[in-house]
Specification:
This protein has helices at 3-7, 70-84, 96-107, 136-148, 150-162, 169-179, 183-195, 222-231, 248-251, 253-265; strands at 11-13, 18-23, 44-48, 89-94, 112-118, 209-216, 236-244. It is α/β, with parallel strands linked by helices. It has a single domain, classed as Alpha/Beta hydrolase fold, catalytic domain (Rossmann fold, 3-Layer(aba) Sandwich), CATH 3.40.50. A 7-stranded mixed beta sheet has the order 1-3-2-4-5-6-7, with helices on both faces. Helix 4 (136-148) packs across helix 5. It is globular and about 50 Å long. GO terms for molecular function: peptidase activity. Pfam families: Abhydrolase_1. InterPro entries: AB_hydrolase_1, AB_hydrolase_fold.
């Protein structure tokens, strides 16, 4: 196993010729894909990895400067694909990783046959001409609560983001992976996410993009998925599911997994 594979806890399962790479979002790790992977292993070779900073990675490897922008994560993804000898893949990214995939596909379009973007946003903050869902004061209050008591913040943030109460298995799972992050790293990633503005990248995308979105997502309004669709440079399609929450692959797999599988199997022209 190479250094990059080891650092990112890379796991490769399945035996198909086509390769699918799964990237997770903030506060989770590769376990967020546990409901999807069993449906892929018979037909695809599946690559799972953890973003640097996830609770499952060595915190000593987290470079605060490198990961102050999403480009750092994109370079990690490209390096990982190169180390594994992958020349083309379907990339399925959730939240932060969906935009990581966008940037990586601009730097190295040859490595990606298509992108599936789940709960994706190029910018979370509202502007005069853009609705991302959050005002600056919202982010400030979240950040202050996070800094004052991280454990308490995790317990409150998890049900808001997932959609549901603490009795929900999905909420408990997200709360667990969120709490596993070292608080100072979690704070740094949180700031990176809520400060980035990646809208200028969108027109440079040439890889086909499948945008999958919950109809009710506290973190990403449906308007954002439409914005992505209109502004991505290549071909794209949006599917809004009748699901609630930012992690539908974890909270409502019975609805979400068939949608993801359909977009993986079919090209844009074939997807209704």
């Amino acid at each position: 196993m190479g250094l990059i594979e080891e650092a990112h806890n890379v796991r490769v399962v399945g035996s198909g010729e086509k390769i699918i790479v799964l990237g997770h979002g903030f506060g989770t790790d590769q376990s967020v894909w546990k409901h999807l992977v069993p449906h892929l292993v018979d037909d695809y070779r599946v690559v799972l990895y953890d973003n640097m900073g996830a609770g499952t990675t060595n915190p000593e490897y987290f470079d605060f400067d490198r990961y102050a922008t999403l480009e750092g994560y994109a370079y990690d993804l490209i390096a990982l694909l190169e180390e594994l000898g992958i020349v083309s893949c379907i990339f399925v990214g959730h939240s932060l990783s969906s935009m990581t995939g966008v940037i990586a596909s601009i730097f190295r379009p040859d490595l990606f046959s298509k992108l599936l973007m789940i709960s994706a946003s190029p910018r979370f903050l509202n502007t005069d001409d853009y609705y991302g869902g959050f005002e600056s004061d919202d982010i400030k209050q979240l950040g202050e609560a996070m800094e004052s008591n991280y454990e308490s913040w995790c317990s409150g943030f998890a049900p808001l983001v997932v959609g549901g109460d603490m009795d929900s298995v999905a909420v408990q799972e997200f709360s667990r992976t969120l709490f596993n992050m070292r608080p100072d790293i979690a704070m740094s990633v949180f700031k990176t996410i809520f400060q980035f503005d990646l809208r200028h990248y969108l027109s440079n995308v040439t890889v086909p993009c499948h945008i999958i979105q919950s109809s009710k997502d506290l973190a990403v309004p449906v308007a954002v998925s439409e914005y992505l669709h209109k502004n991505l440079g290549g071909t794209s399609i949006v599917e809004v599911m009748s699901t609630e929450g930012h992690l539908p692959q974890l909270s409502l797999p019975e609805i979400t997994i068939p949608v993801i599988l359909r977009h993986i199997h079919n090209d844009i022209a074939l997807v209704p």
